Amino acid sequence: MGNIKSRILSVGTYVPDKVLTNKYFESYLDTSDEWIMTRTGIRERRIVDPDNPMTAADMGCRAALVAMEKAKVKAEEIDGVIVATFTPDNFFPSTACRIQADLECKDAFAFDISAACAGFVYALTVANNMIVSGQAKTILVVGSEVISKTLDWNDRGTCILFGDGAGAVVLQADESGRSDRGILTCHLSSDGTMGDLLILPAWGDERFLSMKGNEVFKHAVRCMADSIYKVIDKTGMKLEDMDLLIPHQANIRIIQALANQMGIPMEKVIANLDKYGNTSSASVPLALEEAWMDGRIKDGTKIVFVGVGGGFTVGSVVCVM
Length: 321
Ligand SMILES: CC(C)(COP(=O)(O)OP(=O)(O)OC[C@H]1O[C@@H](n2cnc3c(N)ncnc32)[C@H](O)[C@@H]1OP(=O)(O)O)[C@@H](O)C(=O)NCCC(=O)NCCS
Prior knowledge:
The structure is a single chain. By secondary structure, the chain is α/β, with parallel strands linked by helices. Helices cover 31% and strands 24% of the residues. Strands 1-7-6-4-5 form a five-stranded mixed β-sheet, sandwiched between helices. It has a four-stranded mixed β-sheet with strand order 8-13-12-11, sandwiched between helices. Strand 4 (80-84), helix 4 and strand 5 (109-113) form a beta-alpha-beta unit. It binds coenzyme A (COA).
């Protein structure tokens, strides 16, 4: 049991059809396509239809189905469903329980994780630990968000940044006994003293996502760099040995600052937030899917995933595909 590693067999994604370009915001806010592009790298984002909105479970189901089909894994083989989201369908039942029911993953355990934009990396870490400990063999790890419903659409400092979407991976125990592939190490940490920098209240009349953008920016870069150094250190490898960095997609300037500070060439960094904006827990699987589809990920590719979000939460995972 001590040698079991978990492997990412596949990734699936779902984004709503409705595209909001930066031009849309020019129509009613004091902003411009140029400002948004240069300050964030975001060109457009997807949002659910406001008149007939899909939920996190709806989108998560679609992403999970794609991942299951790619991995050729049947619903009855799924031992657990873990969903990272800060925009759940309900406080309870969890979004994971709805996905478990809709996909008919009979008897699978199901629960949500609340770690904001680090949610997917947190969920991956928890799933990995459950597999490594022998408690489960196959787990669906989902990140799904309907952030458009949490935004103050008149706050130009936040509404331009986010988008809706979902991503899912099938994580499975690798019974080959090989120790050189699969998830090698994980690192998680939090700092609740910085909770007010980025917040979405659960109660009250004014329930919008709000943040201190500048401070979030600085902490995000510092926390992610620290987490990456720690997770790589545990592998015994060097940062230069890694083939790809797949970071949470918050702002291209955050990603560039991180890469620059750590001496990672941008060719090794996956960024697709120009198309989706910040989709929180869906952003890492959306970036993973793009890199996998365009051939940048092959057997043996060494990837560092890193996420950071409100809490503050930060986490990273080293995985050999
Ligand atoms: C929000 C963010 C893009 C703002 O960029 P910035 O370069 O830090 O800009 P500032 O906050 O210093 O604001 C500069 C000016 O632009 C204005 N501004 C903010 N949003 C604007 C917009 N959409 N269009 C035009 N001007 C805008 C501000 O009001 C400010 O004006 P002022 O100088 O008159 O007060 C940036 O701080 C950021 O991305 N932070 C991280 C946010 C994030 O990723 N959160 C999630 C993390 S998981």
